[in-house]
Design a protein that fits this description.
The structure is a single chain. The chain is of the alpha+beta class and 156 residues long. It has one domain. The chain has 2 helices and 8 strands. The strands form 3 sheets. The protein has a 3-stranded antiparallel beta sheet with strand order 1-2-8, with helices on one face.
């Protein structure tokens, strides 16, 4: 699946958009993938995703890490996210935003020392978890696909 991601910051609002992107002329592999996604419908449900991860800074930019919580690693959680669901197919288009002005002062810490940095870290968690869920659902749909579906002509 071809995905296009875009992260923007404007007026203290961090916005993330991920959408499926295909050329007008699909390859045979892309056509098969789209057909599979239509045959074995998978939905991305925000309620099924744990939007929590450990974050560290890389040159001032929040990134996901497998490292344990320490002086340079903190756990970030988005908390309650809106109840939304999206069908995983060629029309996928998810837009999510976080307003830095609504970040609580309690979320600021030694690693993420400003509201804009906290909102960027939260968006990094959102992006990571959404991509992880898409990969999981794609793998599940691909595992369902087999050669059972066919058309034959029988002469008796």
């Amino acid at each position: 699946m071809n995905l296009k991601e875009k992260i923007t910051i404007e007026n203290n609002i961090v916005k993330y958009e991920i959408k499926a992107q295909y050329n007008d002329e699909l390859t045979a592999e892309e056509e098969l993938e789209i057909e599979t996604l239509h045959d074995y419908i998978r939905k991305i449900r925000f309620s099924d995703i744990d939007f929590t991860a450990n974050i560290t800074l890389d040159n001032g930019t929040p990134i996901i890490t497998d490292d344990n919580i320490s002086e340079t690693v903190v756990e970030i959680s988005l908390g309650k996210v809106p109840e939304k669901e999206y069908i995983l197919d060629e029309n996928l288009n998810i837009v999510f935003s976080i307003d830095s002005g609504r970040v609580s002062d309690a979320e600021i810490n030694d690693v993420l020392n400003s509201k804009p940095l906290v909102s960027q870290a939260k968006m990094a968690v959102f992006q990571f978890r959404i991509l992880e869920k898409i990969k999981e659902l794609l793998a599940a749909a691909r595992n369902e696909d087999n050669d059972f579906e066919k058309e034959t002509e029988t002469i008796l």
